[in-house]
Design brief:
The complex is a heterodimer of chains A (about 110) and B (about 110).
Chain A (H helix, E strand, L loop, with lengths): L4 E3 L2 E4 L5 E6 L6 E7 L5 E8 L2 E4 L8 E4 L6 E5 L8 E8 L7 E2 L3 E5 L1
Parallel strand pairs in A: 2-11
Antiparallel strand pairs in A: 1-3, 3-8, 4-5, 4-9, 5-6, 7-8, 9-10, 9-11
Chain B lengths: L2 E5 L2 E5 L4 E8 L3 E9 L6 E6 L5 E4 L2 E5 L3 E6 L8 E9 L6 E2 L3 E6 L1
The chains are: A mainly beta (about 110), B mainly beta (about 110).
Chain lengths: ~110, ~110
């Protein structure tokens, strides 16, 4: 069946370098969510989109993080000037409604060294 | 402040030994409580959504229940393939964000 596709699976960046993560949501899903999972399974909400529009960005550290969901392109999450504490697994999820069953990708493991 | 607490942190059971996982929550205006299963190196997999106190849902060996303060995930006669981390998340009236618990790591020994 269809699934949320995230690339790359692993990403290693030196401190201060840029990192860009991609997510292709399931076709027909209007909502996309980005989460950061750090140690001990803690999930932190970053941002959500309704189609190409930002729906909720209250979880985003705006100084260095940005995200886009443009038509006919994978969604992206970009971190400028990465810091050690950005090391985490970043999950993308999509759903048909803004609230309900969400399908998660396999995640991108970002390691900042 | 919206909050989700899961217990225990880890649970080891013998195959066939039934038990329950707990998810306690405080949220202003519950819109939904979600249970997910996460296997190592993978994204969470949706299990259930519960919307109101008294609601119950079942899937194979799993049954989720909801009260006004907590949810239980009951696992009956578990098998080794049920081993995973079980995550609970809630959403409230204030926004569409989900607040996640830290999960319960379930290990079923054959």
């Amino acid at each position: 069946g269809e699934e949320v596709a995230q690339t790359p699976k692993h990403l290693v960046r030196g401190e201060g370098q840029k990192a860009k993560l991609y997510c292709a949501p399931i076709k027909g899903h209007s909502y996309v969510f980005w989460y950061q999972q750090v140690l001990k399974n803690e999930f932190k909400f970053l941002i959500s989109f309704q189609n190409e529009n930002v729906f909720d960005e209250t979880g985003m550290p705006k100084e260095r993080f940005s995200a886009k969901c443009l038509p006919n392109s994978p969604c992206s999450l970009e971190i400028q000037a990465t810091k050690l504490e950005d090391s985490a697994v970043y999950f993308c999820a999509s759903s048909q409604s803004g609230y309900g069953k969400a399908f998660f990708g396999q995640g991108t493991r970002l390691t900042v060294v | 402040e919206d909050q989700v607490t899961q217990s225990p942190e880890a649970l080891r059971l013998q195959e066939g030994e039934s038990s329950s996982l707990n998810c306690s929550y405080t949220v202003s205006g519950l819109r939904g409580l979600f249970w997910y299963r996460q296997d190592p190196g993978k994204g969470p997999e949706f299990l259930f959504t519960l919307y109101s106190a008294g609601e119950e849902k079942e899937k194979e060996r799993l049954k989720a229940t909801l009260t006004k303060k907590e949810s239980f995930l009951h696992i009956t006669a578990p098998k080794p393939e049920d081993s995973a981390t079980y995550l609970c998340a809630v959403g409230g009236d204030s926004n569409y964000q989900l607040i996640w618990g830290a999960g319960t790591k379930l290990i079923i020994k054959p």
